[in-house]
Amino acid sequence: MNFSISGKPRGLVLSIWLTASCATIPLALFLASSPAHALSEIKREDLPSPVTPPPDGDMSPPGSTVPMPGPLGTTPPAASQPTPSDEPEQTEPKGPADDGGMANPHVDPDAPVPEVVYDLAKLPEPVRRMHDLIVEACKSGDIERLRPLIGTGDIMTQLSLGDMEGDPIAFLKGLSGDTEGQEILAILEEVLNAGYVHVDAGTPQDLYVWPYFFALPLDKLDARQRVELFKIVTASDYDNMKQFGAYIFYRVGITPTGQWTFFVAGD
Asked: Within 10 Å of residue 40's Cβ, how many Cβ atoms?
């Protein structure tokens, strides 16, 4: 397979089985069973299941993550409340920050098509700075340069639609077809070289997203836009995604304040 960053097709075929049997074989189940060494075999994951907060009687040791209590007036039975000596120690979660589902494409075919923008000068300064820092890190070929941009804790960039444990840079290297993560850097740079859209402006979900295909119905792309799409995915990927109903390859989200919210693929 040929990999190219200049727009020529590269072997990034999404392993999406969109046949009549997909109603009984979840996409994530199939993909989870495939190795994550070639870009054409990168896992596509479902959003993690909601976590039920523990009861108000949580007695976690100091320094542990304490979930928010339940609604007022809902006190669990005394027998179900753990004692300090029985409750296991809690540790800070290592998974990605919850973006409220913003990383998932939900394109309304009847909604007005958002404006596609290419001019980076129109971005708010914090967004443009983060965009440029990510691209600069990609061009360096050193994936470690993404580490300070990804961050840690509650503001860590979401790198997976499912649970992610361990070191984020090691995780990205595991997605790449090479051992140094340079292939995933190439994809990240190519995504950020595409046009972008500004979605949910003025709401808590206000976000700048690359590439713009994230927010456009694929059947409404014109010939020029399809050429731009084929710089990132193959024609076969495009056909599969049309059956799925949305662009589900890698996308990047940055908030108006410059927080790199996600870099994920999947549905």
From this structure: 17
Reference 190, options 8, 41, 1; nearest CA is 8
Question: What does the alpha-carbon distance between residue 175 and residue 35 come to, in Å, rounded to a whole number?
Answer: 9
Query: Tokens 């360096």 map to which residue?
Result: 140
Task: Return the bridge partners of 252, or none.
Answer: 210, 263
**Would you call 117 exposed, middle or buried from its count of C-beta atoms within 10 A (0-12, 13-18, 19+)?**
middle
* Total-model pTM: 0.63
Q: What is the tens place of the pLDDT at every residue in 43-75?
A: 444 444 444 444 454 444 444 444 444 444 444
| Residue 215 belongs to domain spanning | 20-46+114-264
Q: Are 199 and 115 in contact (CB under 8 A)?
A: no
How many Å apart are CA 153 and CA 183, to the nearest integer? 26
Please check whether residue 177 lies inside any domain of the structure. yes
